[in-house]
Amino acid sequence: MHAISTTELFLIAMVLIFSVPYLIWRVFRTDYYAPLVVVQIIAGILLGPGVMGSAYPEYYQFVFTPAVIQSLNGIAWWAVMLFVMIAGVELDLRKAWEHRRESCITAGLALGSPLLFGCVAAAGMLMFNGWMGSQAQTWQFVLGVGMACAVTALPILILLMEKLDVLRQPIGQRILRYASLDDIAIWGVLAIILLDWTRVGRQVAFLFVFIVATYLFRKLMRRLQERDRWYVALIWLAACGLAADWAGLHYMVGAFLAGAVMDAEWFDQEKMDMMRHHVLMVIMPVFFLSTGLRTNWDVGGAMVFAAAAVLLVASVSGKLAGIHLAGRILKWEKGEASIIGWLLQTKALIMIIFVNILLDKHIITSETFTALLLMAIGSTMLTVPMVYPKLQKLRSLIQRSS
Questions:
Q1: DSSP-based helix, strand, coil % in the chain, nearest 5
Q2: Helix (H, G, I), strand (E, B) or coil at 323
């Protein structure tokens, strides 16, 4: 009898990764409340050890052997590095600087308020065993979970705003400015959480070399033709990821920095949009599955769901409270704060990347990771159903007044 090879098992896993979410998305027409990206994340959890592994352990162990998981992880690492680099390139800090008072007040409150609410929820989780990782200090766990509640996923926000037809409108551009500033703050806080005093020399060396290398890299990129810039950007991405990981910061911090120091105008916007679309379609589903493979319900399923619900309430109420306060200070039009507050709830991707790093560094346990993952899915699925009717109302008000 033919013994099934690792290659064949890998391809069985790939068939599952691409067919299961696509069929759920198409057959159940989930697009309104769960875009394909969200369905892929949910499918990753369903195919992971917590659901499929419990229901059909022999099938799960048959397909997801250590060799297959290792192969999938390699693709997932590169996929997420590309995705995070694109998010870095798309940051438009010039626009934020032009409207700095409004941008800083809104971004500060949009991040600070859910961060505070999330830290309180994290402090509550510390009263029970099984949530804090083996390598974490208390402040790292509290700040990490708090920050996960405050995150906004810029790439998914762009996708949802395209769908709602507000991306190119003034309100959409404002939301992008706020999310861009918060994106930088997220990676800055992550660097603080990951600061390793045993490797602080390496981390200082990394920052020094990175500043010098960025100056030379930017000079080179300005001289190159656009077709060469794409290739050089990929070499730069791999080098930054390697250097950041060597310094103990994590390769994804390097990937974000690699993108953040590039100018969006170096690349054709349409091609960059296509690249983001293709990365999301072709290789990111592997990352979603490898994320699902890390979920764990060992503390007890009910406890994980209860923690997820508490974190969801902290995240949603914190974000809305912060944005409504900003709207009051800046005297926004009626209804705007609610729309902006709900759109900034979009967490799915960047938060999952963020908590993957916390799990890698043993700051959180896989149970906390699962609770945060469920919270990210919940807040992202709430976004469109909550925003769509509010947008319709705002548009009809504008039409009446004009």
A1: 80, 0, 20
A2: helix
